[in-house]
Amino acid sequence: MKLSVGIFFGGLFGALGILIFLVAFGTDYWLLATEVGKCPDNRNKTWNEEGPVVTHHHEGFFWRCWFEGQAGNGANSMSKFWFTNQSPSKNCTHAYLSPFPLNRDANNTAAYDSAIIYRGFWTIFMLLGVVTIVAGGFFIICAAPFSSHGLYKAGGGLFITAGIFFSMVVVMYVIWVQAMSNLDNYKKSKLEVCVDFNVYVRYGWSFMLAPVGIFFSLFAGMLFLLVGRTIQLHTK
């Protein structure tokens, strides 16, 4: 009875961990940014007389997108990033082509090269985490019909490994945003040509989901290791 309970909760937490990791991996809302300022039009270098221009940015593993919004109360609200509130004329580019959150043109600097390398390692850990947790799920599915303690242990180990990989992904992303994203230089360059320019940066819901998935993955991994150990002791 206790063994079946452990398998049930291990499977439940493992399935939730896989689902959350895949959602965090596939959605482009790891970082949300809103820039507000009155800047000259890029095409004719004339000032926009309609007031401050609001540009919303969001980015994730695959894509970095931006679209214009309306100034006013709530311009910096996270609700502006919901699908129903986004502009149909949204622009997107591959995230790996521009490792800085906002500045899409700084590609000839030493900081750019460092950011590319850093984001490359972040990408590798993200892919390893996704592949590992999916493989762990297959091991557990194969272990269930045969009550194989070896497969349960292997699956549990993969779930724990995936949790470690995603923990590194989260930590590296925080370091990237805080130390390597070049936001200060971007803001200074904008202030040279814009009036009352400001940029607001926050972590998005894809980022917030990752720690939840890490908890489920680690907990499921420990349960499956315990299940495998219990089956091994009872088969001796």
Query: Strand order within the widest sheet?
Result: 4-3-2-1-5
**Which blocks of ≥5 consecutive residues have pLDDT under 50?**
42-48
SSE order, as H and E?
HEEEEHHHEH
Beta-strand level of the residues, as a percent range? 5-15%
What fraction, in percent, of the residue positions are helical? 55-70%
Judged by helices, strands and strand pairing, the structural class is alpha+beta
Query: Whole-number average pLDDT?
Result: 82
Number of helices: 5
Membrane topology: Multi-pass membrane protein
Family: Belongs to the TMEM182 family.
Subcellular location: Cell membrane
Pfam families: Claudin_2
Task: Summarize the helices and strands and which ones pair or pack.
Blueprint: H1 2-26, E1 31-38, E2 53-59, E3 63-69, E4 91-94, H2 110-146, H3 149-180, H4 183-191, E5 195-203, H5 205-234
Helix pairs in contact: 1-2, 1-5, 2-3, 3-5
Features:
single chain; alpha+beta; 5-stranded antiparallel sheet; 15% strand
Describe the structure.
- It comes from Pleurodeles waltl (Iberian ribbed newt).
- Keywords: Cell membrane, Glycoprotein, Membrane, Myogenesis, Signal, Transmembrane, Transmembrane helix.
- By secondary structure, the chain is an alpha+beta fold.
- It is built from five helices and five strands, in the order H-E-E-E-E-H-H-H-E-H.
- It has a five-stranded antiparallel β-sheet.
- A hairpin with a 3-residue loop joins strand 2 and strand 3.
- The longest helix has 37 residues, at 110-146.
- Mean pLDDT is 82; it is low at 42-48.
